[in-house]
């Protein structure tokens, strides 16, 4: 039997999400007359160029690790806002990879640079006054989408992560791999779910719960970013602590800032807390 590594499985499910995101944010607006064909091509350039840049880094720096820059380039492109200019994305991703290789790798620091990069990219877009997640079709208010429509991809999110059902399906598929830390998304989402219900009951607003319990930003970040092997703990107790930190922080941070970025802030803060407390330990194994 041919064994497929976790990173290859991740690349497979990310490719499916990329294809759907291309349809949702590129092809569909084009069909309805909101995009030129050049914009259809542009949408798919983000992951292609991200992977290409990552491969260039892997070759130049002779990086043969399983979780390499090719994979990180692919992963990072999924979560960026639709408003990100291509030149800014490439320039930013280059700087992010250089920062990881020359600073984090040299200092052996397991900071989740994917999350840090996502938040810094958003800050840059806000300063440029060019920060939004909706595509042209969604901004037209031409359609009124139902809850089911939201599950299958018609909600504002990162460039390629809007389909919640595909993300849940990816989680189920990845959970069969022994190296995928499925406890982290389960515990994190479980606590987020409970806190969301509690807050909705407190505010007497169950529509708030229905609107956000299947938020694609939250679900995708917990499935793909929170359990990344190099940036999350391995022991059961540490995984539980890390997960509960994330799950407990998502809602207050989302209410304080935005549901688009609250989950990323929660993961980054939890990652920093464990780094600060030294909970990864000296036996933290890299793969």
Describe the model.
It is a single chain. Residues 280-287 have low confidence and may be disordered. α2 packs parallel to α4 (86-104) and α12 (236-256) packs across α13 (262-277). Helix content is 66%, strand content 0%. The chain is globular, with a radius of gyration of 19 Å. The protein is mainly α. The protein has 13 helices and no strands.
Strand content: under 5%
- Mean pLDDT, to the nearest integer, reads 92
The major β-sheet equals: none
User: DSSP helix count?
Assistant: 13
C-alpha-based Rg, rounded: 19 Å
Quantity of strands, as a count: 0
Core attributes:
mainly alpha, 287 residues, disordered C terminus
Short description:
With 287 residues, the chain is mostly helical. Helices cover 66% and strands 0% of the residues.
What layout of secondary structure does this protein have?
Elements: H1 6-31, H2 37-60, H3 69-79, H4 86-104, H5 113-127, H6 136-139, H7 147-151, H8 164-175, H9 183-202, H10 206-212, H11 216-225, H12 236-256, H13 262-277
Helix pairs in contact: 1-2, 1-3, 1-8, 2-3, 2-4, 4-5, 5-13, 8-11, 9-10, 9-11, 9-12, 11-13, 12-13
